[in-house]
Task: structure prediction
Amino acid sequence: MSSRILVRPSGHAFEAEPSETLLQAGLRAGLNLDHSCANGSCGECKARLIEGRIEPACHHDFRLTEAEKQAGVFLLCSNRADGDVEIEAHEAGTAAEIAEQHVRAKVSKVEQLQDDVVQLTVRAPRSGGMSFLAGQGVLLRFDGMKPQLLSIASCPCDAIQLRFHLRRHAGDAFSDFVFNRLRKGREVILQGPVGGFTLDEDSTRPMVMVAWESGFAPISSLVDHAIQKDENRSIDLYWLSSIPRGHYLSNYCRAWRDALDDFRYHSIDLEPAGDDRMEHVVQRLVRQHAQGASHDFYLAMPGASLRNIHAALTEAGVPGAQIHCQAQEKP
Result:
């Protein structure tokens, strides 16, 4: 039988199953609870019990002071609920609330999704992962290479395993390094997180997500997080590509579509790979979704296209606070 968890001061609530820790349940529900290692080593997920009972779920190495214990402080990652509880815990609401981090990680997988697209997975130590919001990015620092800013393609619910997408670019040193020389086990420093292209955590409006080329990476993170918060949220995902076979994770998108009742995936081939032109797609999107200002828009597109669609949405009456943009200058 699940327990109801009420979080102060946010007032957010979620259900926790008997088999999961309070941190696991909170992250599953899409809350941005402070955490790092998730295994009892770092103490970042400290919370305070206000009402109800909790019980240990596993051993933790982090030592709470006697004063903290007397005040009801505990670790979310190492305890589960024994019935309904009320707790005090910090949730990051904006990008500005997350401190800059330097995390020493290792490459765990270099997966070639297509001839010219790689999915790079790095693993942070269990003693301290990377805290971030969906849609943000980090600087990857490999020894001997110029740092590269990449959007995180994975959900914030996993601070240990982070995924990134990279397309091959002729003459680009970082691209050449990843495609030709990077191997599993290589050390990398993650610096960040960076960026304010994040989810409006308080909105329940239907969402329109538009990704151009590898702009799918931050959009993927946003979709995963939105689904964690509410699997019934209405989402239209448009993935635009002018590169043959440019929709390199269409199966991933179709899995969302098949599993969710109110999720629609639109795979659009732009010229020269297809017949659609960017300006025509923008016009269709505005006609279909902008009426009544009832949607939130998340757009990872080229700068010129962003300016055009932002102007068109504003002219159609969509408030600026409902238009979230990230310029995606490289495919």
Remarks:
- The mean pLDDT is 94.
- The chain is about 20% helix and 30% strand.
